Amino acid sequence: MRDFIFDQYGYYYSDSDASEFEFKGYEFKVMAHSLTENDLINMEEYIQYLYSKLNINPHCHIVKNRAGLYGVESKYGIVSLVSCLKKDYKLDNLISFQHLEINELSKPYTISNLSTLWEEKLNLIEEKCVPYLKIDDFTYPIILKETIFAIGLCSNAIEYLTDMKEDYGNEVKNLCYAHKRLYDLTSFDLFNPFNIVIDSPTRDLAFLYKEKAINLNELISIIDYYKLDQMEISLLMARALFPTATFDILEDYFALKKDIKLSIVKKHKKTKREVNLLVELHKRLVEKYKIRPIEWLLNYTN
Fold first, then answer.
1. Residue 22: which of 69, 67, 85, 65 has the closest Cα?
2. Phi, psi of 300 (to 5 degrees)
3. Predicted confidence (pLDDT) at residue 67 exceeds the cutoff of 80
4. By CB neighbour count within 10 A (0-12 exposed, 13-18 middle, 19+ buried), where does 173 fall?
5. To 10 degrees, what angle do helices 140-168 and 261-269 make?
6. Is 231 exposed, middle or buried (0-12, 13-18, 19+ CB in 10 A)?
7. 24-63: per-residue pLDDT in tens?
8. Average pLDDT over the chain, rounded to whole?
């Protein structure tokens, strides 16, 4: 990868296998995608337009290669290099970003669509990943235990979406610019154009809470500031339940044939803490906002 980056962009760094590096205060990461050059031109123009509406400049760009192109063919498919000034941001910056005016969606955002997406991910894990986990490896019991627990969480989250649809209807109306994955409030997570989606603000809030980037009191303050209704707060709970981190690891195992032993063991060590966060969150949301209760979370004890 290092030689590819040097040939295409002129940057040179030490780790020959790494797809990300730092240079003069900037983070650089290679992003794989299937966009055309025109798509990338439009993305870069639009993302800079969005940034111009903020009171900060994140200095985040899709980098042109030596030939002046945003997209480059590689052995991994089409990739682009994204650069972003390395910086930590605050909740106020996320809130400002989420309040930017969004383009009109071509189709409604519905609970049914989200439920279908999660069901497809669940089927992939159950049918494609689990049967091919290596039984003869010493980490197999841990991997299997973590996988089964994640499957249970996903099933619970899907059931909760079904209940939400019955309680509140199907369409989610309060949408904003959000992120595919938001593990913290660093510049690259916040402003990488390939990480930006249109979704409910609860998507980001659930990620940040599960990653302990915000605490429960901060989360409650944002819920109240946004004046989220019961449907949105229930959606926050469903998203908190969904086991994104474990499913991401397992999907990499299936799609990229990655060795996931260390990732799963590391994830498993955090599971008890994550369950405690879910329990604390659910009890507070049920008590304060009267959302539909989940019995095992209300009755959970260490």
1. 85
2. -70, 135
3. yes
4. exposed
5. 60
6. buried
7. 999 999 999 999 999 999 999 999 999 999 988 999 999 9
8. 92
Cα distances from 24 to residues 30, 84, 186, 187, in angstroms, run 17, 11, 17, 15
Question: Which helix (DSSP H) or strand (DSSP E) does residue 266 occupy?
Answer: helix 261-269
Sign of CA dihedral 278, 97, 222, 117: negative
Phi, psi at 186, each rounded to 5°: -80, 160
Tens digits of per-residue pLDDT, 92-146?
999 999 999 887 776 789 999 999 999 999 999 999 888 877 767 778 888 889 9
pLDDT for res 123: 95
**Residues facing residue 88 across a β-bridge:** 186
Helix axes 201-210, 230-241, angle to 10 degrees: 40
CB 139 within 8 A of CB 259: no
Contact (Cβ atoms closer than 8 angstroms) between residue 193 and residue 82: yes
